[in-house]
Amino acid sequence: MYRTLALLTTSLALVACKKKGEIVEYTVPKSPAPGEMPAMPAGMAPTSGGSGHAHGSGFHWELPANWSEKAGSAMRLATIVIPTVGEDSVEASISVFGGNLAANINRWRQQAGLEPLEDQALAASMQPVETRVGPGFITPIYNDQAPANGILGAIIPLPDEKAIFIKATGPNDQLKSIQSDFILFTESICK
Amino acid sequence: MSQSSASKFSIKSLASAGIFYYATLWLIVLVVIGTIAQKYSGLQFCLDKYFSSWWIQPLDMPFVVVPGGRLTMAIIMVNLTAKLIFSTKWKWKMIGINITHIGVMILMIGGVVTAYTTIEGNVALKEGEQANQFSAFHELEIAVIDRSSADEDKVTAFSDGFFRVNEPFSADSLPLKFNILEYYPNCEPTARKESEVNDKLINRAAQNFKLKALTHDAKDQNLAGMMVDISGLKEGQNGTYMLLNSPGLPRISVTAEDGKEYEIILQRRVYKLPFTIKLDTFTRELHAGTSMASAYSSMVEVIEGDTHENVKIYMNHPLRRHGFTFYQASFTQGERNTSILQVVYNDGESLPYYAIITIALGLLLHLVIQLPRLIVAAKQKA
Fold first, then answer.
1. Does B162 contact A at CB distance below 8 Å?
2. Which residues, 6+ apart, have CB-to-CB distance to A114 below 8 Å?
3. Beta strand B252-255 with B187-191: parallel, antiparallel or unpaired?
4. With 70 as the cut, is the pLDDT of residue B29 above it?
């Protein structure tokens, strides 16, 4: 029986093979070219250039026109004040901390009254962006059931399991109106 | 012993009960080890290492291998088949038991077909959007995208079967050649020192970061990455690039020697569907007085040639077409709702049902055949 078992095991093992590579060709609908800006709300042209630089913990960024900055604290590098529509404004915090990225984004989603998402769904909701520190992504979190609790976030992963988190909170419509400038601001972050 | 009787003997010994007992015992050991390991290394990694493999290297020791789950199941299947052929008594009163055994064989064959043909993935559709492809959860590909056409992008994809270090690969339709220098199923980028930067590192990610291998994540949240040499490009672009399977990373743009432009990305493997699925509307119902979803559903249109069919996908009501099953998995909200449908393809999805029916029929038949004898025996006892 043992000789048979050994012979059987060896024979079957010889049949086993490594996973083979496959080359597949397919077509997909046209996607945006790298660096193309997302669609902007009608009537809102992007503000170009910047009113100056701001500094925090070795990181630099350029503020779009009319944006201003308040001093940060131990955890927060800076608070950015962003005028939106009329006299209104929203604030964005810039922080550096660690933790699992998906868990942090889901924590924001819960703050906006939305349910947490699995990784694949989370990835589908994020928009890649190239910053001067490295690649990152924009995470707009808008809950139609709670339009006052919108979050417009940006995350730039860093070495040592940390990341730069930029989080603007406010009404959905106001955040949408500043989204293109927010992306420009995120792209300007460098060290 | 004559030669013919010796060969007959070895074939018949494949039906030995001892083979079944030892193989099943080993399978139990694998299940225990794989179940414990899954807590630390993630479900998919342990499924691949302990149950889908032919061989396992315990603790990655060189030259030491033990049978993996697939090899063990193959041994059991050969053993049961040999038993069915050589040891089964094909008598009328045993027909119920024999049919039951055939049902078990169908179940095992279903397992084999499922093991080799199953693809799991998902597709995210915004309202009004349509798709004729989905992305697999556990397979990757290097996609080389030709954007030169105005109508659509043409992709040449290399599956992860090519992801072996120092085994170059290319396609006849592309002027590019790839040679993977490092590949990690899970890794993290770490800052590269100034002294480690050289002219061979081309894209910014490769210049600024190097890859540090990590063990598989316990929650299967792995970041796959590679350093790959790409040649066949115009001067100044040939060299080493970093590719990461991360939704946050932009594509690498390159120009081939012939002037054609391509984008390269490491992504989840894309599979085409034999039809198009379009999301008309996504509906979410809330628990009264809360913002928590109680149910959600997708109204989709399945487009196949000139045929359009409207189907509602919701919990316990998946869409089944041509071996593909679409389940309502999740959603995201935004300017337009996005429905996320889980897609499963399995050539063997019907075989377990046939197996169960066959087993049930066999047991029923055995009971009917044995009933007169049981009644007589009960009367005699009384």
1. yes
2. A141, A143, B291, B333
3. unpaired
4. yes
Question: Is pLDDT above 80 for B294?
Answer: no
Binding-face residues of B in 123-152 toward A, CB within 8 A: 124, 133, 135, 137, 141, 145, 147, 150-152
Looking at CA atoms only, how far is residue A176 from chain B in angstroms? 10
Contacts of B248 in chain A (CB under 8 A): 126, 128-129, 135-137, 155, 157
User: Which chain B residues have a beta carbon less than 8 Å from that of A100?
Assistant: 221
pLDDT at position A31? 65
CA distances to A169, B11, B247, B286, B294 from B337, rounded to whole Å, are: 21, 61, 20, 15, 16
Pairing of strands B293-304, B261-286: antiparallel
State the burial class of residue B116 (Cβ atoms within 10 Å of its Cβ: 0-12, 13-18, 19+): exposed
Size of interface A-B (CB pairs under 8 A): 166
- Residue A123, H or E segment: helix A119-125
The string of pLDDT tens digits covering residues A145-187 is 888 889 999 998 887 677 888 999 999 988 988 898 899 899 8
Q: What is the dihedral of CA A124, A126, A127, A130, to 10 degrees?
A: -120
What are the angstrom distances between the C-alpha of B168 and each of A47, A88, B231, B240?
A: 47, 58, 10, 13
Interchain CB distance below 8 Å, A135 and B338: no
**Structural element, H or E, at residue B152:** strand B152-159
Q: CA dihedral in degrees (B78, B80, B85, B86; nearest 10)? A: 100
- pLDDT tens-digit map of B178-221: 999 999 998 887 777 777 888 899 887 788 788 888 888 777 77
User: Quick check: B140 and B224 in contact, CB under 8 A?
Assistant: yes
**DSSP-assigned states of every residue in B206-265:** HHHEEEEE-PPPTTS----EEEEEEESBPTTT-EEEEEE--TTPPPEEEEBTTS-EEEEE
Residue B169's CB is within 10 A of a number of other CB atoms, namely 16
Which regions of chain A are under pLDDT 70? 1, 3-5, 7-18, 31-57, 71-75, 99, 160
| pTM of the complete model | 0.66
Architecture (CATH level 2) of domain A2-14+47-170 = Sandwich (2.60)
In this structure, are residues A166 and A186 in contact, taking their beta carbons and an 8 Å threshold?
Answer: yes
Distance from the Cα of B147 to chain A's closest Cα (Å) equals: 8
Determine whether the interchain pair B205/A22 forms a contact, defined as Cβ–Cβ distance below 8 Å: no
Q: Are strands B119-126 and B130-146 parallel, antiparallel or unpaired?
A: antiparallel
Is B78 in contact with A146 (Cβ distance < 8 A)? no
Whether chain A has a CB inside 8 Å of the CB on B261: the answer is no
Average pLDDT for chain B:
86
Chain A touched by B288 (CB under 8 Å): no
Task: Choose from A74-88, B61-75, B138-152, B238-252 the range with maximum mean pLDDT.
Answer: B138-152
Interface test with A, best of B291, B328, B340, B341 (most A CBs within 10 A): B291
Of B298, B307, B320, give the one whose Cα is nearest residue B126: B298
Rounded-to-integer distance, Cα B254 and Cα B239, Å: 11
Specify the 3-state DSSP secondary structure of A35. Answer: coil
**Encoded tokens for A28:** 């997909």
* Closest CA in chain B for residue A138: B248
